[in-house]
Amino acid sequence: MSSAAATQADKKRKHSDRTIKELFTSQHKPNVSGSAPLSPSSKRPKLGSSPAGATTTPEKAMSTASMYHFPSKRGEPEVINLGSSPDNSPARMVGIRKATPNMSASTGPKKLLVKNFRPTRSVDPKAFLDQTWQKVDAALDTIFQQGSIDFSLEELYRGVENICRQGMAVEAKKRLVAKCKMHVNGPLRQRVEEMLGRQNVDVLRATLQAWADWNKQLKYVDWIFCYLDRSYLLPKQESLRDITIKLFRTIIFEHPKLNPRIVDGACDLIAIDRAGEDLDRKTFSRAVDMFHDMQVYTHHFEPRMLEFSQTFVKEWADRESAEQSLPAYVKSALSLMKREIARVEVFRLDGSTKRDLLTLLEDHVISRKEARLTNEDEFADLLEDNAVEDLEHLYTLLERRKLGVNLRSAFMKWIEDTGTAIVFDEKDQDGMVVKLLTMKRQLDAIWKVSFHRSSALGQGLRESFETFMNKTKKSSGTWNTDNSKPGEMIAKYVDMLLRGGAKAIPAQLSRKTEKAVDVDAEEDNEDVIFDEDTEVNNQLDQVLDLFRFVHGKAVFEAFYKKDLARRLLMARSASADAERSMLSRLKTECGAGFTANLEQMFKDIELSREEMSSYKMISEERNEKHAIDLNVNVLSASAWPTYPTVPVIIPRQIKSEIDKFETHYKAKHSGRKLDWKHALAHCQVKAKFPKGNKELVVSSFQAIVLLLFNGLPIDEHLNYEYLKEATGLPSPELNRTLQSLACAKLRPLTKHPKGREINPTDTFTLNANFTDPKYRIKINTVQLKETAAENKETHERVAADRNYETQAAIVRILKARKKITHSELVAETIRVTRNRGTLDVSGIKKNIDRLIEKEFLEREDDGMYAYIA
After folding, report:
1. Are 509 and 438 in contact (CB under 8 A)?
2. CB 290 within 8 A of CB 301
3. How many Cβ atoms sit within 10 Å of the Cβ of residue 310?
4. Sheet arrangement for strand 865-867
C-alpha cells in the first residue's frame, strides 16, 4: 500500500474520531432551547461516504433532519447509529446508552448505534490470488515430485483461507484441479504405461504403486486445501477426495489401453491361486481395496472376474467329470466351492460377488452335470461299498440345487435288485433274514447320515422294500406255490431268537460290537451293561420292520404258529417275557384277530399246568404210586396247528400212566375226547453207560428206541427190521429217529456199518464209548427241526387257504355291490386280500370261475358279474 493512501486513511480515522467525540459531547449537553430532541438521522455523521478530508457539520445535519422530525409523545430514546462501516455496510454492533441522572425527564435516554469503522479494502483480490498461488504451486510441485517438505503447511493453509475469503474459491479450485490433472496425466500415467509391454499382473502392480503414491500426496493436498474443501466444496455436495479419485479413475484406470490390463491383472492373480500356486495375497487385497475406493468394483472388476470364473469352472467341470470317478469328482467339486467361497470371504469381496460366483459354480458343477452325478451304476457301487461319507458328499452337493431327490430312482433300483437277489437265492434261504436285516440297517444308516433323513428318499426306501419282499415266484423253495418266502423265513428267524435268546443273534447284527460307540467320551471308561432282554427286544423290533413290508401275512402266521407250538410243548422258549412281548407286538401290528389263536395256545399251556397240578394232588390223596412222572398238555384243536397221527407202540409202563390220566380227565370233563400226539412228546431218560451215567432229553420216539436196548449186552446188535417191528413206527419216522441217535454229533447208539444214511440192512448197538462233559444232554433237537414234508404241507395248506379267502372276498364284494365289472372286481379283490396274501390276476380269475360253477355269481351278457342270492 502506498504512503499517500496511508496518510489519507489516517486523516479519515482522525476525522472520524473527532466526529464521534463531538457527538458524545453533544449527547451530554441538555436541550436548553426547548426544541425537540434530535433524530438519529440528524445526529449521525456520514463516515466514509464523503471524499477524503470532507466533513459534515451538525448544523447542516440538523437543518436537514428538522424537516422530517416528529416529536415522540412517549419520550422514546433517540437512536444514534455509530456502527456504520466506511463502505456503508450494515452495522455489526449496536450500543445502547442508558439515561443519566442529569438528563431531563422530558428528553429521556437516547439509543446509540455504533457502525463498523473498518476502512474499505483497496487490494486487488486477483493480484492477491496470483501472489498466494505462486507459493501454493511451488509446494504442490514439491509434493508431486515427492521432495522434502521445506515449507510451512500452516502458512499455505492460511493463504488458501484468505483466497476463499476474498471470494476466489472457484478460481482456486480450477487451478488445483488443473494442477492435479496435469500430474496424474503426466508422471503417474507414464509410470503405468511403461509396464504395458509386460504381464497384466505387472501393470496391476504399477497401478497400485501409482495409486498408493497418489493417496500419499493427497494427504498434503488435503491439509493445504482443507478450508476450500470444507467451506466451498462441502456445501455444494462435493469433496476434494472425490475430485482427486475421479481424476485417477478417468485418466489412468479407465484409459482404453490400461483398463483391461489392470482388471485382467487382478483376475490373473485369482487364476494363479486356482492353479495351485502361491497367491500374492497382499497385491490382490490392495487391488480389491483400490477397486472399492475408486468405485469401479461393481462395473469393471466383478463382471470381468465372473467371466473369467465361468470359463475356468466350465473347463474344470468338463475335465474332472470325464477323468475322475463319481466320489472323486464330488470331493473335488466340494473342495473347489469351498476354496472359492473362502477367497471371497478372506478378501472381503462384495456379497453380490459371493452370490453370483456360487450360482455360477452350482450351475456348471451340479446342474449341468446332473446326469453324471446321478449315474445309476456308480451310485450303485457306492451303495454296495456302504460308502456313507461319499454318499453324504454326493447328496450334500446335489442339495445345493435341491436335486437330492433325483437320487431316488437309482436308490430304489439298487434296493429292488439287491433285495430280489437275496429273496430268490435258493442256495442260502436260511440266511435270507440276516442279509435283509443287515441291508436294512445299512440303508437306514445311509438314509439318516448320508441323505439327512430326506422324506422322499425315505419313502423310496420303504416302497422298494415293500416291492421286492412281496415278489413271488413258483420255485422248489415254496413247493411250486406263489407263497411269500420272506414271510416263512421271518417266522423261522423269530423262532431262532425266542429259542436261543441273545446267544442266537448273529454277530453282524449284535449290538455288543457297537456298545463302545454309545459311551460318552467324557465319562469314565466303564463297560456298558449288556442286557440280553434289551438285545432280544431290539432284534424283534428290527424283524418287525421287515414284517411290516410283507403283504401275505398268512404264510408268516402259519409258520410262526407251528414254531410257537414246538417251543411251548417242549419248553424251549428262552424267555417267557420275550414270548409275551412278541405276541403284544403282533397284536399291535396285525390286530386282535391275528393273535387270537396264539393267545389261546398260551392259555392252553397254563390250563394244562393247572390240570396236572390237580391230578397229582388227587393222586397223592388216593396214595396212588406212579412209575413215571407224567406231564400232559391238553390242547384246543381249533387253536393249535394240525398234526398227523403217527402210529407207534407205547411201552407198557408209559401206556398205563397215560390210561390213568385219561380216565381222570374224562371223569372230570365229560363229553371230551383226547387224541394223543406222541410225535410231540419228549422224555427224560436216565442211562448208564460204561463211561458214566447220563440223563438224556430225548423225543418220545427216541425214548422208545433206546428202551429196547435195556438189559442187552453192550455188544449185542439189533437190526433195522426188529426195531421197526418193535416200535411200530413208519419207515420215514424210524429212519429219522435212528439217524438222530446214531449219526448225529451225540451218538448214544452205534450204526453198523458206519454212514450218514439209514438202510434196512443196518444193525445198531449201544455206544460203549459214549461220553460228554455234561450230565444232562439234549438229543431231541430233531423234534425242533421241520421236515421237508411238514414244510411242503404247510405251504400247500396256506396256498389252499388263500384260494378260499379269495373266494370269500369275491362273494362279499358282489354281495355289497350286486353288479360289478371284471376289472373292478379284480382290483377290489386285490385290495381286500392284500394283508393276508394276494393271488395274481390269473389266480383271481380261476376263483371267479369256480364261484360261477358253484352258482354264487353269474356273468351277464354285458360282461358284468352279478350276485346270485
Report:
1. yes
2. no
3. 16
4. 819-820, 865-867, 857-859
**Per residue in 143-179, pLDDT tens?**
998 888 888 889 999 999 998 988 889 999 999 999 9
Residue 129 CB contacts under 8 Å (≥ 6 apart), including other chains: 163, 166, 168, 171, 172
Question: What cell numbers appear for 821 in the block?
Answer: 365289472
Do the beta carbons of residue 136 and residue 160 sit within 8 Å?
A: yes
Alpha carbons 140 and 607: distance in angstroms, whole number:
118
Helix crossing, 731-742 with 720-727: angle to 10°?
Answer: 120
Spell out the residues 6+ positions from residue 192 whose beta carbon is closer than 8 angstroms to its own.
203, 206, 207, 210, 252, 258
Question: Distance between CA atoms of 835 and 408, rounded to whole angstroms?
Answer: 27
Rounded Cα–Cα distance for residues 436 and 428 (Å): 12
Q: Do 742 and 764 form a contact (C-beta atoms < 8 A)?
A: yes
Question: In which residue are the cell numbers 437277489 written?
Answer: 421
Entry pTM: 0.72
C-alpha to C-alpha distance for 329 and 119, rounded to whole angstroms: 88
DSSP β-ladder status, 763-766 and 692-699: unpaired
Cell of 414: 439298487
DSSP H or E segment with residue 802: helix 788-817
Does pLDDT of 104 surpass 60? no
pLDDT of residue 206: 94
Collapsed DSSP state (helix, strand, coil) of residue 260:
helix
Q: Which residues contact 541 (CB under 8 A, 6 or more apart)?
A: 585
| C-alpha cell recorded at residue 621 | 390223596
C-alpha cell at position 181 = 490433472
DSSP secondary structure string for all residues of 578-593: HHHHHHHHHHHHH-HH
pLDDT digits (tens, 9 = 90+) for 727-758: 999 998 999 899 889 988 888 999 988 888 89
Mean pLDDT confidence for 337-353: 93
Which positions ≥6 away from 847 have C-beta within 8 Å?
A: 803, 806, 807, 810, 839
Q: What are phi and psi of 866, to 5 degrees?
A: -125, 145
Q: Write out the DSSP string of 274-330.
A: HTTSPP-HHHHHHHHHHHHHTT-IIIIIHHHHHHHHHHHHHHHHHHHHHHS-HHHHH
| Number of other CB atoms surrounding residue 135 within 10 Å | 14
CA dihedral 144, 148, 150, 154 (to 10 degrees): 60
Helices first, then strands: H and E counts in the chain: 34, 12
CA distance 315 to 330: 16
Describe the strand order of the beta sheet including 79-83 as a list of residue ranges: 79-83, 111-115, 93-96
Instruction: Fill in the DSSP letter of residue 112.
Output: E
Q: Which three cell numbers stand for residue 573?
A: 422258549
Pairing of strands 692-699, 776-778: parallel
CB proximity list for 166: less than 8 A, separation 6 or greater = 125, 128, 129
Of 291-305, 528-542, 546-560, least confident by mean pLDDT is 528-542
The backbone torsions φ and ψ at residue 687, rounded to the nearest 5 degrees and listed phi first, read -120, 145
Note whether 393 and 338 are within 8 A (CB): no
What's the pLDDT tens digit per position in 839-863? 778 888 888 888 888 888 888 877 7
Taking the C-alpha atoms of residue 735 and residue 439, their distance in angstroms, rounded to an integer, is: 40
SS3 sequence of 361-384: HHHHHCHHHHHHHCCHHHHHHHHH
Whole-number Å distance between alpha carbons of 762 and 740: 15
Place of cell 482522525: 14
Outline where 88-199 has alpha helix (H).
125-144, 153-165, 169-183, 189-193
| C-alpha distance from residue 9 to each of 3, 44, 85, 122, 222 (Å) | 10, 20, 14, 11, 39
